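Give me the fold.
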Amino acid sequence: MSIGYTAPWKLYGFKEDPFSELKGPHAVFETAGTRLVQSVIRDAVEEHSLHAIVALAGSGKSVAIAKALRELQRQLPYAKFIAIGPEDPRRLTIASVRTRIIEEAKKSNLGGFAFGRQINTDHVKAALIALHRRFHNGVALLFDNAHDYAPRVLRNIRQLIEDTFSERQHLAGVAWIGWPGLDTIIKSSAFEDIAIRTVIHELPPLTHEEVPEFVIHRIRAAGGDATVIARESLDYLASRGVDSYGWDLKRPAAVLQLCQKAMELGTRAGERKLSPGLFYLADKDKQPLRSIWEEHNQEPSLDEIASRIRFPRGHPQAGQLIRRSEVKRYLDDPGYGNHQTHAMIAAVIRFHALNRTEGLQKCDHLKKTDRRTGVTAAS
């Protein structure tokens, strides 16, 4: 006889998971960070200036950018925003950047851009000039996840910006978005004049006052009652400082991840209110993955871990093998991603350490889909 499984969030009266799967405009909570992103992108498009937004993983960059673009497209109907940022930034090429700009010019019913397969900088400049004349509110190029671009692509983008950002005429504003380290790249001698003209902004984490409001907003957006979480629990979330790596635990992703773990613990304990004790246990229960990995002499390798784990249900790449770069992000940031994948990586590392000679092939429980979490390990 099989026992049915009920998702934890349903037991708390939510219509959807408020801490992981909640998406869309109704889930967005306005913070000082989202206002900063909107202000920066607005300056880039109206003033045709150069900006960089730097933030840790899980700080809400993508959400803030999506919100800013929705608002600005409504406020500035004659502005053009060209977002360039594939799911895998390392695969970006200068050819795809040029093609994207040309395609945006074609979408805007601007003729004269049938250049065949060979698109060069002159073609891109002509497209930007046409866009500049058409959209009098301004044009902006947004480079997301720019910290992960290949050096050659960065050099080519730098040249593209220099060619279209002359002293006589600024054809488009530019906003780079990425992790810490992006600012170091931009300030390097390789970027020369661009570095001098680029204004660098740091996306702040949630403030002490914003954390409780953020969690309550998510609960209400998921159709829940705010009284399901104790006030002391909200105070505990707001009081957390930094983790062992010095990363702020008041980043949105870190806050939501702890809420998710507390909700799972509460379900197992049969509690119907998210009490502070659950958050305390959830906070202490999660050991940073890098410390586990180093404890086992960095075995297995990143590639071997990646070859054993698939993205969980609900992920855009569900069912596909997790990428090596994604595994590294889980190792480096305790607040990144979801608890299920975190637990699966930890299980792979620990099992490998206990079964070095026999490998991972005999680990039966890692070859099946966990009905509770939906995480599948590759066989």
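The two ends are 26 Å apart (CA to CA).
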